[in-house]
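Subject: for your reference before the review

Hello V.,

The reviewers asked for a structural picture of the protein, and I figured it would be easier to keep everything in one thread rather than splitting it across files. Below is the amino acid sequence we used in the manuscript, unchanged from the supplementary table.
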Amino acid sequence: MAQEDVFKKLVSHCKEYGFVFPSSEIYDGLGAVYDYGQMGVELKNNIKQYWWQSMVLLHENIVGIDSAIFMHPTIWKASGHVDAFNDPLIDNRDSKKRYRADVLIEDQIAKYDEKIEKEVAKARKRFGEAFDEAQFRTTNARVLEQQQKRDALHQRYSDAMNAGPDLSELRQIILDEEIVCPISGTRNWTEVRQFNLMFSTEMGSTADGSMKIYLRPETAQGIFVNYLNVQKTGRMKVPFGIAQIGKAFRNEIVARQFIFRMREFEQMEMQFFVKPGTELEWFKQWKETRLKWHKALGFGDDHYRYHDHEKLAHYANAATDIEFLMPFGFKEVEGIHSRTNFDLSQHEKFSGKNIKYFDPETNESYTPYVIETSIGVDRMFLSVMSASYQEEKLENGETRVVLKLPAALAPVKLAVMPLVKKDGLPEKAREIIDSLKFHFHCQYDEKDSIGKRYRRQDAIGTPYCVTVDHQTLEDNCVTLRNRDTMEQERVPISSLDSIIADRVSITSLLKKLQ
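And here is what came back from the structure prediction:
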């Protein structure tokens, strides 16, 4: 099945089973804004809990805060967002649609990559085990031709972005590459313009007394302006980190690919404050730590890769992305940046306050350097759903749709099902739920045949199902079914907690990180 079709099915599945709904749907929706349903909010909360505990439980020198969404407008002047938080946009005159110029070019680079991979895949199929991929990539004429085009475009694009960006050059690249509008199919493009992404609003009771403020486009600045408060009240010593989970807002013009790019989204960020001169060592360490966190979910190492930045932000001296293989290709889910001391120095300059750190060991004051790890909750949610969604052909010829979610992240850990709705079986099932609901999320299900109920639980990713039958009333044993293998075993009711609890707890994931 084409990856595009898989993605469409995933989006449909998210709505059908209560994971994600279009926001304001009864009013025909609001572009690039989504609501999380009853299953989605549980999965999302579990992802956040996994991240939070991996930060504040496993690291004695990392603590959390929750800063306000509204902040003094000068903060965004100091951070550079007022002047430099822009996207290069281009319009197609025929379709009247607006696009990000950099995204159009990046998609074109991806097309060259796809052509190369198709040639490699065909050769692999043709030559079988005797296939030497490295030799093929360096000798095949078609691969070399596409690689040359790809590298030339990539270099030209990098030069244009590093030059400010050079807006006229970005437009010229689009024209030279003959990139067409996906809607109209034409190349009737306008000039490229910069567009600021921040939402603004007014604070104050009267028009005359109001102040223009912004909805925060990132959560990091709330940490920076509070770092000294946290350091002093928590008696923290460098190196130390501050973690935060919160909403951010960007007026994305080209918001697309479901919840991958939205106007209202959630971030999990940790800013790690270090001594100047040690930042690149810490950057390397946090790269490894964060990739290990992702891989612990068990989706396979081939689903992840680093993408080191060639064009660094004005505040950074090193940056990399952790990319995940989505149905629409490798895409960024987390960024790790060495932000130098830019943010703290700027806030010191604009506020006029001394926010240097005093090091009691060396008896000196300095502005710490910062390593940032920043992950989008919604993108993480999408990556987990994408990797978990499977359509399996069964031995009886049927197809089952199953979400093979990591058990610790699954919205429902255990479904308890009476075989029939009589003879005391529902009461026994409720009894089991009442004893286990304090330990993990359980669901009672008695509607339809047992086979349909299994399929329904497979579709929401429930790792375990328990069936209560007439034999249960005699021996206090139930049938325990595993979602992934569909194997069933008889187990005592008294053993359910010990069998299931450890496998479905966040602790089971955290232990892999030690």
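For the response letter, the relevant points are probably these. The mean pLDDT is 91. The domain at 1-67+217-393 is CATH 3.30.930.10 (BirA Bifunctional Protein; domain 2).

Happy to draft the paragraph if you're swamped.

O.
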